[in-house]
Amino acid sequence: MQSRVWKSGDPFIWLAAGALGTALLMIGGLFWLIITRALGVFWPAELVLLELRTGERFLGHIGAVEASPDPENSKTLVRRIQVQVANRDLSSADFVWIDEDQIASRTRPTDAIVVERQEWGNLFGWLVAVTEDGEPIAQGSEQSWQVLQQMLPQVAAQRGRIRRLEQRQLGDINYRMEQTRLEMKRYELRGDDAGALQGVRERLTRLQAEYEQVYARLEAMKREAQRTVAVFQTASGQEKSVPLVQVVRAYWPNQMSTWQKVRLYCAKFWEFVSGEPRESNTEGGVFPAIFGTVLMVLIMSCAVVPFGVLAALYLREYARQGPAVRLVRIAVNNLAGVPSIVFGVFGLGFFIYSVGGSIDSWLFAERLPTPTFGTGGILWASLTLALLTVPVVIVATEEALAAVPREHREGSLALGATKYETIRNVVLPSALPGVFTGLILAMARGAGEVAPLMITGVVKLAPSLPLDHHWPYLHLDRKFMHLGFHIYDVGFQSPNVEAAKPMVYATTLLLVSIVVFLNLTAIFLRARIRKRLHAGAF
Amino acid sequence: MTEFRVAIGKRRAFRRRLADALAHGVATAGGLATVLGIGTMLLFLTAEVAPLWQGARVQLEGRVPLGEQPSLLWVSTDEYRELVQAIRADGSIEWRRVADGRVVHNSRLPGTEGLGVEAVQSPRSGQVVYWRSDGVLVAANVVTHTEYTAAGRALRPETAELGRWNLLPPGQTPRLFSTGAYTDKGISAAWLRADGAVEWWSVREQRSLLGGGRQVEMREVIRTADGARVQSMVLNHAGNQLLMGTDEGTLEVWQRGPSASQLIDRRRAADRASISVLAFLLGERAVAVGDSAGGVSVWQLIRDPQTTTGHRLVRIHSFRPHQAPVVQIARSERDRSFVSADSTGTLLLRHSTSEQTLAEIPAGSVRFLVFAPKGDGLLQITLGSEARAWRLENPHPEVTLKTLFGKVWYEGYDEPAYVWQSTGGTDDFEPKLSLVPLVFGTVKGTLYALLFSVPISLLAALYVSQFSPPRLRSAIKPVVEIMAALPSVVLGFVAGLVLAPAVEKHIVGVLMALPLAPLSVFLAGLLWHACPAVVRARMPHGGEVVVASVFLAITGYFFWVTSAYWEQLLFAGDFRHWISEVGLGRFDQRNCLVVGLAMGFAVIPIIFTIAEDALANVPQRLVSASLALGATRWQTAVRVVLPAASPGIFSAIMIGFGRAVGETMIVLMATGNTPVLDWSVFTGMRTLSANVAVEIPEAPFGGTLYRVLFLAALMLFVITFIANTLAEVVRQRLRERYQRL
Prior knowledge:
Chain A is α+β, with helices and mostly antiparallel strands and about 550 residues long. Helices cover about 60% and strands about 15% of the residues of chain A. Chain B has 16 helices and 30 strands. By secondary structure, chain B is of the alpha+beta class.
């Protein structure tokens, strides 16, 4: 019996099956975790009012429950619940832990309100009044809610106007002033043409005046916006006045129907995807990060495809096959296994300090010592990633080229086509899906990399997108934001990690979706090529 | 008509040939450029690292005769090494340009009109303390402001007296003299009297709580313990520590307490020679000692509870000796470099921490020797009162193979140690750049990652290749590929913010589940074996995976949930306390257990894919033959397939190793990033890669830290490249073997 067990190896086979199961459970668990946590982020959870035996009151979202040893009696365990109470500006912590046996009552007050603010995060409490210049225009929860609902769209429009003024007009003037200053410096560096210099100086003065004017208008608008104020009361009885312009959104989660919740969910999701970050990235949207990621991957693709394909063509079609080419092939293959941080270091030293530094001293001398290309930027980050991913494209392309049947090539050559014509008309078209597969894999890898970007141009908050309406539209020297770095930064560098977690989960889901989508596309594409090749063989 | 056609044909043929040649050229050029670009990377990294080992370069820049009379007492040079500032015995100060010897400015020490000056010291830049010939000690500021005007640089020296103290009767002059800096707390000075005793004087400003101040003067006479004659002495900036060297080669340290001074320790620092020069190094924790036999060493006080004073003097560095007595030692104000000069005029440039002698300069003779403020030059005054300015290029004196990879005795440390600490809070902080803790961290992280992922991935590969139905296999491949593609920042986030706190809370459950969950599956397999054939036949092919997963999940979940109870039962409710009591060290929340698990996500798919490939491609003939001879599937898998595919498995592990070594984001986020040197699974580490990612953005371009980080990157490059190449070569040979079989 015993020897039969060992012979059949059943327990070991089961163990092996268990190993496979572990890997599958790991990946499944990870996806389950990310998806469930991330999808819950935008759902308007109910507000629960907890009254403790001590008389303290807490209003918030109920979070995790945990059992921990009782500090007084180490033999028993105490169940504690985590409550997100928000009101970061009034109490010190976003979250509190409450012993379950301390709770006297739990209620769901129907008129408890969630206010999403521009600053200080959410506010949980009750609406008391709405005032204008200190005069109440609405009192009581119900009436004030009606007024608030009416006014919020106008306020949003007002906020939009202020932002446009601030970013567009003021930003434009600033930009032009900066350009003028540089022009001035250029003239000064050359040291001739005093008349032109004078003209530039006058232009700068004019711009300054214009700036003052717009700035005054902006200040007036901001003052105007501060006039209407909503007054709230929190669970602990404190009163808090919030200027309406600060209110992004307000809702009564305990009264909402499912349909309303779904609509709110979609609105919040849309804000996440299309909005600007607030509160040092822990709230608002991630649009700049999405934009930065996509633009970087596109620039990377522009660099990686020609070089990757040329290298593959050379290795497969033009170079004489021998030990040298084999060696190169192994080297290229292994480059894919070199740690990404090494590429980052190379990018920093070579692209930024060597190449960028030279570009600066030739072309942007007037800006020195402020570096233009001599510091991290989207171009250098993209090129670094291109270097990192070029082996992926080379390997995939080579594989595709090798898979083109010999007869096709020979047929083409036999019909009198030159080698170039054969490659262009016969080889490349049938290798194209392979090239695409390589490109997509490279894009997936590039989108997910963070380490090399951290040192070649990613920042936590970029003041402006690398693409805008100022000539030359695409600003390759600008720093940019990136989804992966956003995860690292918000999750690990923000002061209030617990409150930032929902944002990180949502960003993670977004990034993982992009990467998984790209990979699935590549897998699908590859499967189709294989199928076609097999079909072609018969 | 025909001619015309032929012409067209010719032109077309030419164009086609041209296009063909052009394409050939472009492909070759582009291909070669790409391949070369990749090679450039290695070259560039090496080129950035190479200057670390460049020695120092010294070059004579200029020489200016300063004139013998009145005799020189003190010299210095400015930041740009353009001027020589000299103080003479008549109290005059002159600034002279090195380039043409012209005196650009003249001034005089405050309070020296009509009086001579006996000795001058500068305890800190911009401050001088001097003895007047009437026995009065004076502290004064002599600051040279540099102003930039349209005409160029202009000097505006400013002198101001800070205080004067009548210490000696007129006519009596100190033979040796050293002083601390003048601060708002007071000043201290020590000098050698004609009778061979040392007098240590200080004045302290004592502030009462009410705001009033009171000066407390203290004056002591110190004699050496065995009556040996004092040959050299030096007082620190703060004026509370006095070092003396004697003609018998002993070194004494005295510490000033509130009421009296105490001999802290005395040691023999030179054999059969007298200690001729003492000089504190930057930071004033270590002192350079030169003796009359030419020996040069660096000493410092370390804590030693066995001595009565609790401190002991130790020699922490020794250097190549001079051929003649050491007469001068000058320290750099930038790093731990110093120059020692002997009586034959040979200068040796040293670096204390790395124990290097970086350059030898035959300089004739030496009366004074000072470092330029930026550490990039030397000013030497010969016995003939000629000033010589040397340019010094000494970019990375602190780096040697020994300081990078060996134990180094840093200033202020009680013993030699491996330390990585690149930045510190103070100006005189010494960067400690030992790569050992980082290499150790990398090895540790890799080891735990592989310990976790190698068994899982190899067993899974064995199962998928040998025992699973083909449909399962084709379904698993893309899943694994997706797993491999997961961005490491996501894994790091989940590991650091979700897994680490959860594992910490359920640590006992996790530790129990690690062996027990697989055991439960193993037992399930035994049970299954005992099942009657009827039951066994009903299991669909590949069903083991589902059942085993369920078993794993149930046992894992059981221990996870009951963790707190186990902790109560086995460790009295506090596992962290228990491990520190047993002597297993600390417990970090972000520890190697978490890193191992998280890196598993990155490494498992890589090892799995390659190992599965190797196992599945073992020629079917071998398997069939084995089965036909009556071996079971398991026996075939273990005795035939595994050995045949072992090179492939080796290369799979190598590639997994390469991935784990270079992984950056996971370790950055899932460990505490403290460079520690212990193997405990419950502590974190700092790896080469994470260290580079954290520190290189702050490293000044071209500086030592920058280049050392490049070295770390180069090491990662080389290690992974070797591992991958090895794996690739083994795999290719395996493929050829399979074809032959």
